[in-house]
Structure formats: structure tokens, C-alpha cells
Design a protein that fits this description.
CATH class of the largest domain: Alpha Beta
Order of helices and strands: EHEEEEHEEHEEHEEHEHEHHEHH
Low-confidence stretches: none
Oligomer: single chain
Helix content: 25-40%
Strand order of the largest sheet: 4-3-2-1-5-6-8-12
Mean pLDDT: 93
Structural class: alpha/beta
CATH architecture of the largest domain: 3-Layer(aba) Sandwich
Distance between the termini: 37 Å
Length: 297
């Protein structure tokens, strides 16, 4: 009989893509806070405000992959910051409380985390031992990982994925970058020589599958690629694969600060995630470079 995996964040791009990687080896179910998505077969309802989880989702569960979270790119109003926090930390705490009350002892708890752990505006090469930052986003991520760590009480392996910029042809950064490129133009933020850490969505999904299957994988992992590149190098490699004659338009970062406020730090670059721990686990990348996946399309 297949082991059961529960994934939160049903409507997110990562959760949807991850299903394709897990479905052959596991029985996969989801939790969704959107009632119209619920079918009570493999998609079940939960409500953070009411502290409710349909326990059929957790029945006979072996592994939980916690991906839910209000998008951090939304405006950083106090109300939205509360949503960002609650959708990550309060939801993890609700999962823990429900498992504890129902005596559900899972084997593995894998949680999305973020490179924001190290702080906004940091311009360094960092490994998993680097201390956490001191801004509000770093504090959110620290609490996020601490909520996941509670599952160690059950003897579960806890894995926190400190995810960098996720490359996906159908969503996020890459989707909005490719469209103007096809019309002969793209943009780069000045200064453009700062490091840009990223990982392809399929490699992220592959590592999650790898983590479930390999018991030596535990703790925090930086989710990036081996090669250190600057923002301009990333953009030029994308351009080479799509339309090498496209014009690169520099946009001063102060303009993005005016438009996005503090969120501009998320796209500014400067932080490079060292992945020695990831490589030492034995995991192999399918897409270690931009061209390795764009040239397929």
C-alpha cells in the first residue's frame, strides 16, 4: 500500500507541480481553504480562522508538505503582513495541534521556507549556518521554521526548504520576463551585478521527493543552483535562449523602491545561497543552468 502525503497550498504553482512528481509513489491529498476546490476525495477543506481541518485529510497520513502562504510579493500593509504570517505559522501550528490531538505521528514534515531567513538587503554568500536576519521578514521565516520544528516531538524528520527565486515557465518571475522578451525588450535592475539565486520548480519538486525517500535528509536546506550568477548574467542567458537581439533596459532600483516599497528588496539580488549541504546529500540537478531548461522549449 502506498504511503500517504498531505500537501497544503493546493492552488499554488508548486503544490500543483509537485503532485506530478509524487503521484506514482504515494497517495497524495491536499488541503485547501477555497471551498470550490474541495471534493472530499483528494482535496479537503481547512479554515484557519475557525481552527478547522477536515481530519480525513490527515487520516493514515505519513508525510506532510506544508506549502501554504499568502504571497509575499503582495503589498506589505500591516493587514497583508498579518496574512503572510498567519497563513504560514498559524497554519503549521494548526496542523501540529490536530496531529497531536488525534495521535497522528507522521514520518516527515517538509516545510517551505525562504531565503528571507537571512534578512532583506543582505549581499553575501551564505550557508545554512549563517545567522538569521533581524527584519520583519527574517522574523517571519524564523517563526515559520520553528513551527515546523515542533513536529520533532513526534519523532518526525523536519526539513525546511529555504527557497530562492523559483523558475517556472507558467508563473512568477519567469512568466513576466519571457513575455516582453518575445517582443524584443526586457529589463534589468541597476545595480545589475548583484548575485541572483534561483532554482527551477522541477528541481525543487525532485528534492522534495528525494527528501521523503532518503532518511538522511534533515534540517534546513538552501534551495538554489550551484553556479553563482549576477542578475545581468541571468537576464542575458534568458535572452540568449529566447531572443538574443532583445534590448535590455536598465531600471534604477530607486524606481522600484518607489513602486514596490520594501518589496523591492526581493528582486534586488545580492544574496547567494551556498548549497554544499544540498549537494552533499547526493541530490542531482536536472536544470542547473537557465539554458538547460529554456533550450528544451
Amino acid at each position: 500500500m502506498k504511503e500517504k502525503v498531505l500537501i497544503t497550498g493546493y492552488n499554488g504553482a508548486l503544490a500543483q507541480r509537485l503532485f506530478d512528481f509524487l503521484k506514482e509513489d504515494f497517495t497524495v491529498v491536499f488541503l485547501s481553504s477555497t471551498k470550490k476546490s474541495v471534493n472530499n476525495k483528494d482535496v479537503f477543506y481547512w479554515n484557519l480562522d475557525e481552527g478547522y481541518i477536515d481530519e480525513n485529510a490527515l487520516k493514515n497520513c505519513h508525510h506532510i508538505i506544508h506549502l501554504s502562504g499568502y504571497n509575499i510579493i503582495n503589498r506589505w500593509s500591516n493587514n497583508n503582513k498579518n496574512k503572510m504570517y498567519s497563513s504560514r505559522i498559524d497554519s503549521a501550528n494548526l496542523l501540529f495541534k490536530t496531529c497531536k490531538n488525534s495521535n497522528i505521528k507522521i514520518k516527515t514534515f517538509i516545510s517551505a521556507s525562504a531565503m528571507g531567513y537571512y534578512g532583506l538587503g543582505i549581499e553575501k554568500d551564505v550557508d545554512e549556518n549563517h545567522p538569521a536576519g533581524e527584519d520583519w521578514l527574517a522574523s517571519l521565516v524564523v517563526d515559520w521554521e520553528s513551527a515546523a520544528k515542533k513536529f520533532e516531538e513526534f519523532g518526525a524528520r523536519v526539513i525546511n526548504l529555504r527557497i530562492s527565486l523559483m523558475m517556472d515557465l507558467n508563473s512568477g518571475f519567469l512568466k513576466v520576463t519571457l513575455l516582453p522578451l518575445k517582443f524584443g525588450v526586457t529589463s534589468v535592475f541597476v545595480p545589475s551585478n548583484l548575485a541572483y539565486s534561483w532554482i527551477h520548480i522541477d528541481d525543487l519538486c525532485s528534492f522534495i521527493l528525494f527528501s521523503i525517500k532518503n532518511s538522511h535528509v534533515v534540517g534546513a536546506y538552501n534551495m538554489g543552483t550551484p553556479k553563482k550568477q549576477s542578475q545581468i548574467q541571468v537576464i542575458k542567458e534568458i535572452r540568449k535562449c529566447i531572443f538574443k537581439y532583445a534590448v535590455v533596459v536598465p531600471i534604477p532600483i530607486f524606481i522600484m523602491k518607489i513602486v514596490l516599497g520594501g518589496r523591492s528588496q526581493l528582486i534586488k539580488g545580492g544574496l547567494f545561497l551556498k548549497i554544499d549541504k544540498l549537494l552533499a546529500s547526493g541530490f542531482k540537478f536536472k536544470y542547473p543552468t537557465i539554458s538547460s531548461f529554456l533550450n528544451k522549449n
